[in-house]
Amino acid sequence: MAINKKEAFTDTDQKLADLAKAMAHPARIAILRILAQRNTCICGEIVEVMPLAQATVSQHLKELLNANLIKGTIDGKKSCYCINWETFKNFNADFNTLFGDLQVSAANQACC
Amino acid sequence: MAINKKEAFTDTDQKLADLAKAMAHPARIAILRILAQRNTCICGEIVEVMPLAQATVSQHLKELLNANLIKGTIDGKKSCYCINWETFKNFNADFNTLFGDLQVSAANQACC
DNA sequence: TTTTATCATCGTATATTTACGATATATAAT
DNA sequence: ATTATATATCGTAAATATACGATGATAAAA
User: Fold this and answer.
1) What confidence score (pLDDT) does residue A103 get?
2) Higher pLDDT, A17 or A103
3) For A24 and C14, how far is CA from C1' in angstroms?
4) HSE on the CB side for A31, CA within 13 Å?
5) Region A18-37: what's the mean pLDDT?
6) Which CATH code, of 3.40.50.300, 2.60.120.10, 1.10.10.10, 3.30.70.270, is assigned to A11-89?
7) Which of A26, A32, B39, B83 could form a disulfide with B17 if both were Cys (CB 3.0 to 4.6 A apart)?
8) CA-to-CA distance for B47 and B56, rounded, in angstroms?
9) CB-nearest partner of B112 from A8, A73, A103
């Protein structure tokens, strides 16, 4: 059991799920919030603000990179990260395609 | 190791992460898509469309219920589900508070 | 009442995620 | 050259998630 059935779904659904998964941990949301609020590269400083060990933060950053939610470069001794707004725009678009169009009709929905 | 550190983060970040987690599987995205497209209760029929065993689909539905992303009632022999638009509206709002405001300035962002 | 149909829950095997210490790597400082 | 600093990677233990068969519960049909 626990065979991976994820490839049995459409690419769109897998893509959305992967993005959601990358955001499915408060530590990663917190990282994104920090980067979004400053809206510029942050070199270092991230680990100090997080209530997690350095190795763990690094792991979370890697997951955000894999999902293309952030961009990173190495600047001398430090590593710099910033939001990848392109991905967020796409996510918002896909998300709204899925659900947004119908939200207007939510008011006159009579079920459950 | 693997001690749960999730409560070390803010309620807002935990809430967003939980919602993201509930959507972090293509099967659950697919279910939400089906419900959203019809925009009405669906009684039965969901299992037949999914490439998963009945028990697994039921498990996914339960997670969506827990996250308040869908509503469910029992109608005789069948169970009926529909989108909980309220939650989606809130999610969109929270999500946009986090990231949406800054997307305008993404163009003149010069880093990484 | 017995049977059938629909769905939830239980038990369980496997896969994946989370977290950290230890270690590696690479630059900057001395 | 040596040391200090910053960050990534490795190894690994524990926690969660995924998936399904078996079983339970409930209501409609016979």
Assistant:
1) 55
2) A17
3) 22
4) 35
5) 96
6) 1.10.10.10
7) A26
8) 9
9) A73
